[in-house]
Every structure is written in structure tokens, then in C-alpha cells.
Amino acid sequence: VMVNESGASVYSASEAAREEFPDLDVVYRGAVSIGRRLMDPLAELVKIDPKSIGVGQYQHDVNPLALKRSLDDVVMSCVNAVGVDVNTASQQLLTYVSGLGPQLAKNIVTYRDEHGALSSREELKKVSRLGPKAFEQAAGFLRIRTGDNPLDASAVHPESYGIVETMARDLGFDVTDLLKNDMLRKKIDPNRYVTDSVGIPTLTDILAELDKPGRDPRKQFESFKFQEGIEKIEHVQPGMSLPGVVTNVTAFGAFV
Question: What is the predicted pLDDT for the residue at 252?
């Protein structure tokens, strides 16, 4: 198994690392970070400045503000696409959730430390300074895996819970049954639930989410296997076709 260590040294000397591992040497902090990247790379990589990972040969020639803005947008897009478990996520990960930012992320962690795990998305409204607008923007990206409402573990926004409940009620079942029974979901005709504010695209997304609630869009990790017997540069011959992992591309060649 190979894990990219770019930026691990930056993290190990950061304030976030000192808060997480105050008693560990920077070398061990970096080692922990690399190990965590194997388990959940997104949750770990958000703890460092994106440009520290290395985003190209000429990144230092780009306007720093423009580069930071673009990289932050990409990270935020990835975080929101995957979703965040509000009860286990770090402050750094929560920061990138749409509608939150550093202060609200810190307030969520503080609330969690003081009151324990959140049991519903509605409980987010009790977090200091997390108002209606922030809740509206963030709720759909925050997951509560073992909450009171099974929809809290999905990407269905609380504003759409009523639609799902109506679908289940029309079939004579509850939401939990609807999530568990594929045959029930196939009986749903989305056209019946179209309104002035909810169209077919939204209903299609909701039904897709009900098929795999809280699904992780990322692919399953696969360990890479190098060609056996190729251990030195002398073993490489012209015309050979070998598997490899490209770690960087520059004007003068690629690092494999």
C-alpha cells in the first residue's frame, strides 16, 4: 500500500496537530496523519493548506489569492459531495461544509463536547450562532448516522422530509420501511409529487438517495500491485509495459 505523504510535515507542525497530539513529536504526528489518509484521505487532507499538497510545477507563479480561492472551492465541493458525519468530523472538516465556516465549525465541536453526540439535524439549531440560513445551507451535507430520523443519515434535505413521508404514507408504510424495501420504492411515481416548488429533477435526486441513503460516492480503495521482478532501473527495458502510480507531472517528465 502506498500513501502520498505530501504535506504531512506541514500538518505535523501545525496548530491543529499540536491540539490533537500535544504530547507527540512532529515525526509521530506526521506518521499518524499518513496512516489516517489511508482510512479517510478527505478527512485528513482538509487539515492542511491545499497548496501544501503540491498542485503543479508552476503553482508558485499563480496569483496566491486566486490559487487559494480555487483550491478552497475544490475542497469544499469534495466535502459537500461526500457528506460529513457531524458527530465524528473534525473542526477542519466541518469548516468546509457549505454555510458553516471556521467559527460555526468550532461551535459545533464545542456543543458536541458539552452535550454529547447530536441525535438529529434539528438539534443543530441549538448550536451557538447557527441560524436559519446557515442551517438551510449546511443541513443536507451533515449526516447523523444513528439519529432518531433515518433521513438524517442521508443527503435528503430536511425541507424535503415531508415529501418522503408523504410517499411512504401513500403506500401505507413509514419512512423506515420505505428505505429498507426496494419494491416499495419502485412503486413511487414521482410525477404525483410535482409542485410549483419541487420539480422532477429534485424528486429524481430524492429517490436516488433513498435507494442508497448516505452513500459514499468515492470508489473502494484498491491496493496497487507493481510488476514483480522489477526492483532496479536496470530491470527496465525499452518497450516494456509496466503499471505505476503517477504522483506528479512536470515539464521535464512524470514522477511514477
Answer: 86
Q: Are 57 and 251 in contact (CB under 8 A)?
A: yes
What is the span of the domain harbouring residue 126?
83-148
**144 and 176 within one domain:** no
Element (H, E) at 121: none
User: Using an 8 Å Cβ cutoff, are 135 and 126 in contact?
Assistant: no
Q: Domain for residue 45, yes or no? A: no
Helix then strand then coil, % of the chain, to nearest 5 = 55, 5, 40
Do the strands 142-143 and 84-85 form a parallel or antiparallel pair, or are they unpaired? Answer: parallel
The grid coordinates of residue 133 equal: 440560513
Which of 13-27, 43-57, 94-108, 203-217 bottoms out in mean pLDDT, i.e. has the lowest? 43-57
In the chain, how many domains are there? 2
pTM above 0.90, yes or no: no
User: Residues 186-211: pLDDT tens digits?
Assistant: 999 999 999 988 999 999 999 999 99
- The alpha helices in the chain, defined as continuous H runs, are 8-12, 15-20, 26-39, 41-45, 64-82, 91-95, 102-115, 132-138, 161-170, 175-180, 182-186, 200-211
CB 155 within 8 A of CB 140: yes
- Residue 108 included in any domain: yes
Take residue 27 and report the three cell numbers written for it.
515525526
